[in-house]
Structure formats: C-alpha cells, structure tokens
Design brief:
The chain is of the alpha/beta class. It contains 10 helices and 14 strands.
Amino acid sequence: MNKQPVLQPYTMGDLELANRVIMAPMTRSRADNEYQAPTEELHVKYYTQRATAGLIITEGAQVSKQAVGYIYTAGIHNKQQVEGWKKVTDSVHQVGGRIFIQLWHVGRMSHPDFHNGELPLAPSALNPNAKSFTPEGFKDTVTPKAMTLEDIKITIRDFQQAAKNAVEAGFDGIEIHSSNGYLFHQFFNGTSNHRKDQYGGSIENRARFYFETLDAIKQVIPQNRIGTRFNPSLHGIFGMTMDAETIPTFDYIMERLDKEYDLAYVHLSEPFNDVSDVEFAVQNIAEYYRPKFSGTLMINTDFDQEKANKVIEDGLADLVSFAKLYISNPDLVGRFKKNVTTAPWDADTFYTTGAKGYIDYDVKTRELIPQS
C-alpha cells in the first residue's frame, strides 16, 4: 500500500476525498464564445481528465458581468454558463471526482473595455498600476470607481446568486476568491482601501465586506461546502503592496473564521515571489497560520511531490493544491503513486484558446480518467 501522506484519503466536512492532491484554480481563457460559457469539447474533457484529484477547484468564474477582468473566462451568472458547468460536473461525478467552483470578482484589476467604457469597481479610486488582459491584448489598468454602498450590496447579492447557480450546476461546493489582489483582497489591504465608511479604516471594517458576503453565501449553501482562498504575503504583483497592518488583517480573518465558522477549508498561498526583504511579509505561511486555524488547511505555491508529502507529514497542512503541474500532468495522482517523473508545461499555451496545451498532454500512467 502506498504510504505517501499526500495520497491518503481525507474527510473534509461531509465529503470524502480519495487523496490530498488538489487541483488548484487556474485561469486558462478557453471560454471563447458568446456567453463565456464552458464547452463540452474543451472544459468537460479538461476537468474530467484530472478527476483523480482528491478535489478539483475550477478556474475563477466571475459572478457578474461587472466582475470580469480577463478575456475568455467562464462565468457563473447566466443560463448558458450554468448549463455548461453542469456538463462539467456531471462528467466529473460520473467518474467519481469531486469539484468546487471558484467565485471571482477582479475589482480594479480590470479595464473599461470589459464594461462598455464604464470604470471597473474597487474599494477606492486607486489605480493598481498593473495590466488587464483585454480582447486587444494587455492594457494598463485605470483609476477605478470607488464602490458605493449600493454597489457593495449588489455585489454581495451577485456572490450569493452565483453560489445558488453553482448548486444548480451540480458543484460539490464553492471557493471564494479572496486572494491575489482581486476585489476582497483590495478591501483587506490598507494601500488599496482608503475608505472612510464602515468598509474602511480599521481591520474589522476592511474585512466587513468579505464576512457579509460569506454570511450571504452560507444562506444558500452549507458552510462545510464553502472554501476560501487568501494570499497574505502578496507584494509587488497584482497591484498589491503590503503594509504594517497586512498580516494583522489576515490574522484577524483567520482567527474569526476559526472561531465563528465551519468552512470546508481555508486555502493559503506561500509567497509568489521573493519577499525576503519585505519588512511586513511572512516567509512561511503554512507554518505561521497552522497554529491559528484548527480547520482544514490547504496550501499552495511551487509544491512538488516531495514538498507536498513533507508539509502534510509535518502537520502544517491537510491538503496541497497543485497548479502548473496539473496543467501538464492530468494523471498527476498516478505519477505520484508510481513515482513517475512529471512532464513540463508549455507556458505559451496557458492563456490561448483551443485544445493545444489544454487537453493534449501525454499520459504516462493509467490513473487518467477514461474519455468517451
């Protein structure tokens, strides 16, 4: 019997996961149709190929038209999208897989090209000075519109409706994308949130929008089917700059989640880049937050088989999510079981359309789910 920690089953709430190898959410830009909906010829095959993962977390799916910031990304806010995702979940479930959908709003990491010339929404009118991937290529971001109280209420309802749509589409649960410089992260961060009302200023106020959204979502889906993702030491990319209150803000959020909620998991990212010279950064996220959170902890960023087994064996995480390795290794679980070398990925096809670099990677083990 294979004794690798990452290959052991795991009970997550009321779901039994076959292993602890999780497919991380990844934008792949393949919904190049009128409705930005998943397709049978691409998305169904892509996710079903990878259904031996203990859990699949889909690419970020925007909760409304206003939430869009990248081309060809599939949403979860119209009928065609729900129908497209239903084909994905049916296929994944047919072969015994588990699948959550990541709910996404990019906030200021967008461009007027996506919004009929209107400004994207954000906590404050502060340009992230980043890039948005538009139909005409990468463009500089603009100064966004500071959200009104009504905008915030509408966005909370959008997330709640998206969660209802996810249930209708057959997902096992949802993940709130509260990470990587997108809307919730923008509210958390004092360098992107200069509000003077109940959604700005104090740490509690900057986290208020997130918790109000979480409370709305748990009205339509059980808490133990809700995951959430954070990137506490994100700095210098996605328009984010850390300050003295960044880590205390995430400490507050994690401690409150631990005391007041019963989520499926919290999904944390280790630093995306070198932050060793950043005064406020935490270098080892799993080690730092494991004592602060007693629920299911998932960790991500640059893990391989050896590192994944070690972080679980050391008790610093319960689950490990893999991103790029899952692009080029649909049979990743099988490769881990048989200690087969993983295949390299083709970065040139990460965000292109079509099958190349999406559903055509070679399989070296029999752990791939059969395709009809």
